[in-house]
Amino acid sequence: MLLTNTLTLFATLLTTFSTLTTSTQHHYNGPKNPSEFRKHCPYTPHHNSRRKIYIRPSRNAKDDISVDLLRGLKQANHGGTLVLPKGQTFVIGKKLDLTFLNNVELNLEGEILFTDDIKYWQSNYYYHPFQKSISYWKWGGKDIRIWGNGTLNGNGQAWYDGFAGLEILVSKYFRHNTKNVVYDNVIIENVSSNKNLPKNTDGWDSYNVDGLTVRNAWVNIGDDCFSPKPNTSNILVENLYCNGTHGVSMGSIGQYAGVKDYIYNAWIENVIMLNAQNGARLKGWAGPNVGYGYIQNVTFKNFYNYNVDWPIVLDACYFNVNATSTSRTSPGPAAA
Ligand SMILES: *[C@@H]1O[C@H](CO)[C@@H](O)[C@H](O)[C@H]1NC(C)=O
Ligand SMILES: *[C@@H]1O[C@H](CO)[C@@H](O)[C@H](O)[C@H]1NC(C)=O
Ligand SMILES: *[C@@H]1O[C@H](CO)[C@@H](O)[C@H](O)[C@H]1NC(C)=O
Ligand SMILES: *[C@@H]1O[C@H](CO)[C@@H](O)[C@H](O)[C@H]1NC(C)=O
Ligand SMILES: *[C@@H]1O[C@H](CO)[C@@H](O)[C@H](O)[C@H]1NC(C)=O
Ligand SMILES: *[C@@H]1O[C@H](CO)[C@@H](O)[C@H](O)[C@H]1NC(C)=O
After folding, report:
1. Ligand 2 probe mutation, 36, 37, 41, 43, most atoms within 8 A of CB
2. Residue 231, exposed/middle/buried by CB under 10 A (0-12, 13-18, 19+)?
3. Any signal peptide, and if so, which residues (predicted)?
4. pTM (2 d.p.)
5. Ligand 2 site: residues with CB under 6 angstroms?
6. What mean pLDDT comes out for the span 37-54?
7. 164 CA distance to ligand 2 middle (Å)
8. Which of 32, 206, 230, 270 is least buried, going by the fewest C-beta atoms within 10 A?
9. Of all atoms in ligand 2, which is nearest to the CA of residue 45?
10. How confident is the model over 120-153, as pLDDT tens digits?
11. Which ligand is nearest the CA of 197, by number?
12. Nearest ligand to the C-alpha atom of residue 277
């Protein structure tokens, strides 16, 4: 999918790989599955005296409790906690706009499960023009905390089966227009129960985000593991396991003609990159009809590659554009 054999560097790609370590010789002997990972990063429940709200669980995989969830969050708003207990499933069958939140907690110990009604989801969503993304949930507000030992199940299988052989983008944590988001101790897995492979499953993406932290994460998916998109700044990633991914990718930036994109101040430390296409990667568009901008001040430190095809990738000719045409149409940073 990617052409990385011809590398041209923008003058504006001022990024340091000075502390990057590649270790292809050593044998990987870290955690091999989520429960081994959990031993390194145990979950410790925390107790507080906030007001607790409960809603009814679903009786079966079609019993949509979206309306109850919405009501529960409204009741828990301004100082309370909506609790979804262990052993219970909460089925979501409608798109929800949850952008009214202020000082609220969701304690997820059970499972949130999206329905498999891909017909409904294909005509009911929130659209964003960036990479034509659609989503089913919009969370927004201030001081929102989601924590617990539970599961958020997007029902990927319905999509892998429904779109077998076709390209779709399934992204787990896409963030728009946000300040100071932290993900701590999160496990992301794309699992298919049959021969229809999961597709384009990114771990974290971000867009117009200032202040993004991801720490203590286990990611077992098929596309980018952690990938800030345009206009992301002040990024901290530490203790990240990625298996079977396309690596930690800055960008891509510059996809849209005339639009400025930037990514700056990223610190990425202690990464185990297993069975990946790429390790540390920067990707920017060039050539005719692209945008402009920069990736600046990015540090990769203690980055361990095991069975990685391209441990370091500086791709200034993303996507499927050859070096000849990018150099011809990009005489200097102003045009890049
Ligand atoms: C990595 O992913 C492959 C393919 O899904 C799997 O067979 C292997 O067990 C995984 N390894 C680890 C360490 O998670
Ligand atoms: C968290 O969930 C895992 C998997 O369901 C379970 O093995 C573990 O005991 C749970 N930990 C706590 C503290 O509840
Ligand atoms: C995740 O999806 C990729 C393909 O998109 C596949 O190669 C990989 O085996 C999947 N991982 C799991 C745990 O199913
Ligand atoms: C990034 O921010 C700049 C302003 O600094 C804005 O002009 C541009 O449209 C933004 N890019 C995207 C992709 O939103
Ligand atoms: C570069 O980024 C780091 C955080 O990763 C920050 O501490 C430092 O101040 C930045 N340097 C400059 C010159 O902005
Ligand atoms: C690069 O791409 C341009 C435009 O598609 C094409 O005309 C040219 O032949 C290509 N050059 C090489 C070396 O492949």
Report:
1. 43
2. buried
3. 1-23
4. 0.86
5. 43, 45, 149
6. 92
7. 33
8. 32
9. 13
10. 999 999 988 888 888 889 999 999 999 999 999 9
11. 3
12. 3
Q: How far is the CA of 225 from the centre of ligand 6 (A)?
A: 31
Helix (H, G, I), strand (E, B) or coil at 255: coil
Q: What share of the chain is helix, strand, coil (3-state, %, to 5)?
A: 10, 50, 40
* Separation CA 172–CA 190 (nearest Å): 10
144's torsion region: left (phi>0), alpha (psi -120 to 50) or beta?
beta
* E-only strand ranges, 148-231: 151-153, 171-189, 202-220, 226-228
In this structure, which residue's CA is closest to atom 1 in ligand 2?
Answer: 149
**Mutational test site, ligand 5, from 14, 297, 299, 301, max ligand atoms within 8 Å of CB:** 297
- Per DSSP (E only), the strands in 221-256 are 226-228, 232-243, 248-253
Position 180 scores a pLDDT of: 93
Ligand 6: atom nearest CA of 321 is: 2
pLDDT for position 16: 44
Report residue 319 CA to chain centroid gap: 20
All structural domains of the chain, each given as residue ranges with its CATH number in brackets, are: 1-43+172-325 (2.160.20.10), 47-148 (no CATH)
Residue with tokens 């003058």: 11
Q: CB of 198 closer than 6 A to ligand 3?
A: yes
**In this predicted model, what pLDDT tens digit does every residue of 67-124 receive, in sequence order?**
999 999 999 999 999 999 999 999 999 999 999 999 999 999 999 999 999 999 999 9
Q: What is the mean pLDDT of residues 318-326?
A: 80
d(CA 56, CA 313): 49
- Alpha-carbon distance of 306 to 304, in angstroms, equals 7
What is the whole-number distance in angstroms between the Cα of residue 228 and the centre of ligand 4?
A: 14
Judge if the beta carbon of residue 244 lies within 6 A of ligand 3: yes
